[in-house]
Amino acid sequence: MEYQIPPPSVIRLLMLYNVVIMMVRRDIARHQLPVSVEQLIILMHIKDHESISQQDIAKLTRKNKSSIHRLVGILKEKGLLEISLNKNDKRLHVLTLTVKGVQICEVFNDQANAPFPGGDHFSPHRPADKK
Hints:
The structure is a single chain. The protein is mainly alpha-helical. It has one domain: Winged helix-like DNA-binding domain superfamily/Winged helix DNA-binding domain (Arc Repressor Mutant, subunit A, Orthogonal Bundle), CATH 1.10.10.10. The protein contains 5 helices and 3 strands; from the N terminus they run H-H-E-H-H-E-E-H. The chain has helices at residues 8-30, 37-49, 54-61, 65-77, 99-112; strands spanning 52-53, 81-85, 93-97. It has a 3-stranded antiparallel sheet with strand order 1-3-2. A hairpin with a 7-residue loop joins strand 2 (81-85) and strand 3 (93-97). Helix 2 packs across helix 5. The N and C termini lie far apart (49 Å). InterPro entries: HTH_MarR-typ, MarR/SlyA-like, WH-like_DNA-bd_sf, WH_DNA-bd_sf. Residues 7-131 form the HTH marR-type domain. It comes from Dyadobacter endophyticus.
């Protein structure tokens, strides 16, 4: 099978993705947050869902369960989340943020919602400008 070069639109999306990841890494370092990008993504999913199972995190992030299990273990050791058993299904581990985990999400959210250098805010929920 011969290698096919992806279309320019896919290449641009991959480049944009890489830029966003670099910016997130820069912000993590700037604020000295004790997490990696992957760990921050998990924390943000937990914050968005208040409590969520490891299995649901794996589905949302499209990562295998063993990777999520490893990352969750690291976050638990850092004191950023708590693991408990689901009351209805004892096989499921439910994840909730600790106060420290919430604080990290808030620092990152504040940074993500800061204005761009031109003074404009980016919001996916902002109405389109009328022309």
